[in-house]
Amino acid sequence: MTNSNGLFRKKTLEMILADTESEQYKLKKSLTAIDLVALGIGAIIGTGIFVITGVAAAEHAGPAIILSFVLAGLACAFAAISYAEFASMFPIAGSTYSYSYVALGEIFAWIIGWDLILEYVFALPAIALGWSGYFTNLLASIGINIPDWAAHSAWQGPGGLINLPAIGILLLVAALVYIGTRESATVNNIAVAFKVFVVLFFIVVAVWHVKPVNWHPFMPYGWKGIFTGAAIVFFAYIGFDAVSTAAEETKNPARDLPIGILGSLGISTILYIAVAAILTGVVSYARLNDPAPVAKALNIIGLNWARGLVSIGALTGITTVLLVMTYGSTRIIFAMSRDGLLPPAFSKLHPKFRTPTLAIYLIAIATSLVAGFLPIGIIAELVNIGTMLAFVLVSISVIVLRYTQPDLPRKFRAPGVPWTPLLAIIFVGALMASLPWETWVRLIVWLIIGLIIYFSYGRHHSKLAQQKQQLK
């Protein structure tokens, strides 16, 4: 029975399954387990491994950045187990938003949906600016110089006007997502294979140049630095949750979604730890405060010829992150619109491609404007706290549903409930506590804006509210 009492009314499993079969909202099922693992790796391995590793080591953790990756990986692993259970139960677009609607009620679903929009929409411009930096540097290395006015905005550097490369890549990625899921997945699979090759290339080539003396002192900033480093490199893991947004377009979601979520996180964690260990072994951590630390390490050990390959790998890696995050953000908006919490135009599908047209337009325009003209100095921390909040709510939802609806079919059961999700809450909560208070204030302001929209529009237009009105 649906709880239709105001803010805490809930959707049922039957409602969710009916939504996925409705011809008006039916997405094309074309993804396999391999596609989902590649989708997860595509979202995870990018800016984190090619940029953030060096900065976090230099400023926060030193060689103990390895432990920061382990801590962040553990926090994500516990959360991923909860995601896997929900994804196998509810094969629907919307990820945490949809799970919260069933377990906790409409107001929590809105909060987490609005929070996910924060995660995706603000992460995309920040990542696009990283892509732009690598792209302009790569062109400069072959004698092609983009003028300052076109390479960054006035807020991003002197002489700037607009960041055309960042806008260009965001629009290109949006076009790929627009023409279809299968086409996007094929491009992503090829790109993921190449960037994993580049990461393995760095590991194999650089491991012979490791000097153990560079690992001393191992913890120059103490445990506080390790936890702060973990909170920052958490950004490097954002993406595995995007796999769950592809549930409705997966051929066998009950089997393939847990494989995609846990498989992509496991592979990425191993690669992160290996790169962090080798990077800090090749170069003193103090010298890694560089926007391209992997390329810098290769230059220091005399392999300057390999820098071009790494730059291309970084561009490829960051492109796949943009692709998967654009995909995920449009599916969140689609799901919220289908439930009536956002205007119905955002869930209207293209008659041929079966993709949410207006949602893709909205993401493309909003992210392009931010990336093209505005500074993105605080985005990583803001995106991190938004994602951490999503992980905490998923973990709470698993515990709640185990007790309130124990008979729901679970194709994948998270082991050790309630302890496993409780560990996720503890680990992620500790990382959230490591973030600056200013980040908390920004999150609260964003949530207040969202609540204003919900109480002025979503609460009255939601499908559950409309059903309640019809019963009167």
TrEMBL record:
Q: Which residues cross the membrane?
A: 36-58, 64-86, 107-131, 161-180, 192-210, 222-240, 261-285, 305-328, 358-379, 385-404, 416-433, 439-457
Write out the GO cellular component annotations. membrane
Q: Which keywords does this Swiss-Prot/TrEMBL entry list?
A: Membrane, Transmembrane, Transmembrane helix, Transport
Q: Which InterPro entries match?
A: AA/rel_permease1 (IPR002293)
Mode of membrane association: Multi-pass membrane protein
- UniProt subcellular location: Membrane
Alphabetized Pfam families for the sequence: AA_permease_2
> Which terms in the Gene Ontology molecular function aspect does this entry carry?
amino acid transmembrane transporter activity
Its protein name is Amino acid permease-associated region
Species for this entry:
Thermoanaerobacter wiegelii Rt8.B1
